């Protein structure tokens, strides 16, 4: 992601303490106020730039995990379910953008971040939900921070797994050792305070990602993985592993942390959610890519799919090795960009107000300490549970079910809370309640299944020790 894309990302988070005021009752006077016309943007993005940012935010480690997701769901079920989840996610993103616009209109402000929009929407909803306005903003911040740190954990595991695949023929070391080796460079890179300094590295990461994907597709179309020769494809999967598939697809498809920020930073924001606008176009491309990589990757590997498709490329092949190295470098750079987000949320919203009166040197030291602490936290979590695929499923189900489905449904219900009931609004409320239930079921089932699978993944190791 380039500097502009990442700076847009950071607009999606804010201090919940500033966003808990209820929506004023101005239903009659807000009709003449269009938030889009009052936005003052120094460097707004055009439609194509916004589309590129949306694609970049959604094309990361998630797409490399899609073949394993299909192995858990079955080929036919995986294709159908990915399309359906894509439609669900796209609809919920539209709901989120509309609810944010309605909240801006009622408060008569040009734009709001996700936490601010959530607090404002609930503050103008049913009386039972108005008390939840401030907790809702805090919850959005918590889920955003947990999700971004979860991505960083996934990235550490991904980098270590792929480096291990490259160097194993020469030095066979545990994956945790590789994590420890990259920890120092990660901390040093994460101490860079300016996104402007990271912009050239981000551009390099973009090139590596797209070139690497092209080469991976070439390998997947060339034939089957040797270990999968003669193995029959599972077309329908099982209900037991489907929640893991759901969490992985949510993690892969949902760019909820940046959607409001992207729309807020557009030169023509009305084009974002139009029928043939940026969101629908981008999500269509993303779903097609994910279905294609998931399906052909599963046909290539069958049940022998690794957590990342890069780990299934031929060993010793120079071109395959170059792809692994490219993705490892690209994800290394992306780690620092993603870790920048929770640093900004925690620093500006929670730490800086407590050290504001300190000397500049002390403030800078506190900021560096926060950056190092978050980096160490993600390292400890990744080393404790070095299971890339299960990490992806866990954070997808836990955070994105809430951020991508539950909160948008609640926000739409609240901003359309009727002073005069109507049949159309009753249908809308029924739909939002159904979406909220789907999100809760996905959160609970996906999180539970991922946690159980993580525990089970360690059991064979524990059982082998006594036998030895």
Can you summarize this structure?
With 468 residues, this protein is an all-alpha fold.
Q: How would you explain this protein's 3D organization?
A:
The protein is mainly α. The chain has a single domain (about 5-460), classed as Amino acid/polyamine transporter I (Up-down Bundle), CATH 1.20.1740. It contains 17 helices and no strands. It has helices spanning about 5-10, 45-60, 60-65, 65-75, 75-105, 115-125, 125-130, 135-165, 175-190, 195-220, 240-255, 255-265, 280-300, 320-355, 360-385, 390-415, 425-465. It is globular. Residues about 1-30 and about 460-468 have low confidence and may be disordered.
List keywords for this structure.
468 residues; mainly alpha; Amino acid/polyamine transporter I; 17 helices; globular; disordered C terminus
Q: How many alpha or pi helices?
A: 17
Q: Report the CATH architecture.
A: Up-down Bundle
State the order of secondary-structure elements, H for helix, E for strand. HHHHHHHHHHHHHHHHH
Which sheet architecture does the biggest sheet show? Answer: none
Mean pLDDT, as a whole number?
83
Q: Which consecutive residue ranges, at least 5 long each, have pLDDT under 50? A: 1-29, 461-468
Structural class: mainly alpha
Mass-distribution shape: globular
- At the third CATH level, what is the topology name? Amino acid/polyamine transporter I
Q: Report the helical percentage.
A: over 70%
Identify the CATH class. Mainly Alpha
Domains, number: 1
Radius of gyration: 22 Å
How many angstroms does the end-to-end distance come to? 48 Å
């Amino acid at each position: 992601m380039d500097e502009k894309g990442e700076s847009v990302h950071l607009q999606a988070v804010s201090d919940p303490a500033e966003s808990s005021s209820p929506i004023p009752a101005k239903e009659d006077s807000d009709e003449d106020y269009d938030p889009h016309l009052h936005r003052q943007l120094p460097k707004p993005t055009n439609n194509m730039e916004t589309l590129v940012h949306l694609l970049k935010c959604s094309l990361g480690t998630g797409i490399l995990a899609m073949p394993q997701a299909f192995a858990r769901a079955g080929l036919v079920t995986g294709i159908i379910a990915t399309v359906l989840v894509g439609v669900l996610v796209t609809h919920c993103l539209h709901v989120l953008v509309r609810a944010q616009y309605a909240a801006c209109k009622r408060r008569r402000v040009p734009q709001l971040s996700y936490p601010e929009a959530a607090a404002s929407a609930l503050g103008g909803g049913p009386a039972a939900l108005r008390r939840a306005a401030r907790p809702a903003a805090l919850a959005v911040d918590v889920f955003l921070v947990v999700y971004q740190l979860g991505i960083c954990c996934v990235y550490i595991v991904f980098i270590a797994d792929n480096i291990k695949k490259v160097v194993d023929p020469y030095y066979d070391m545990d994956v945790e050792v590789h994590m420890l080796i990259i920890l120092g460079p990660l901390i040093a890179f994460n101490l860079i305070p300016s996104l402007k300094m990271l912009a050239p590295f981000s551009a390099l990461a973009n090139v590596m990602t797209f070139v690497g994907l092209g080469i991976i597709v070439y390998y997947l179309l060339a034939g089957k993985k040797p270990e999968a020769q003669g193995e029959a494809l599972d077309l329908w999967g099982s209900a037991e592993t489907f929640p893991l598939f759901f969490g992985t697809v949510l993690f892969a498809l949902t760019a909820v942390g940046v959607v409001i920020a992207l729309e807020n930073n557009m030169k023509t924001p009305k084009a974002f959610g139009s029928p043939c606008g940026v969101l629908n176009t981008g999500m269509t491309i993303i779903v097609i890519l994910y279905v294609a990589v998931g399906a052909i990757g599963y046909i290539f590997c069958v049940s022998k799919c690794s957590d990342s498709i890069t780990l299934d490329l031929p060993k010793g092949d120079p071109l395959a090795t170059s792809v692994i190295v490219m993705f490892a470098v690209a994800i290394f750079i992306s780690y620092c960009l993603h870790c920048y987000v929770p640093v900004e949320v925690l620093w500006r919203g929670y730490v800086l107000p407590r050290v504001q009166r300190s000397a500049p040197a002390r403030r800078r030291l506190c900021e560096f300490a926060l950056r190092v602490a978050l980096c160490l936290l993600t390292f400890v979590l990744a080393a404790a549970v070095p299971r890339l695929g299960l990490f992806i499923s866990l954070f997808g189900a836990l955070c994105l079910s809430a951020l991508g489905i539950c909160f948008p449904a609640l926000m739409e219900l609240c901003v359309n809370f009727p002073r005069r009931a109507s049949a159309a609004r009753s249908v809308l409320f029924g739909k939002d309640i159904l979406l909220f239930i789907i999100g809760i079921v996905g959160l609970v089932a996906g999180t539970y299944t991922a946690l159980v699978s993580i525990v089970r993944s360690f059991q064979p190791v524990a059982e082998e020790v006594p036998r030895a």
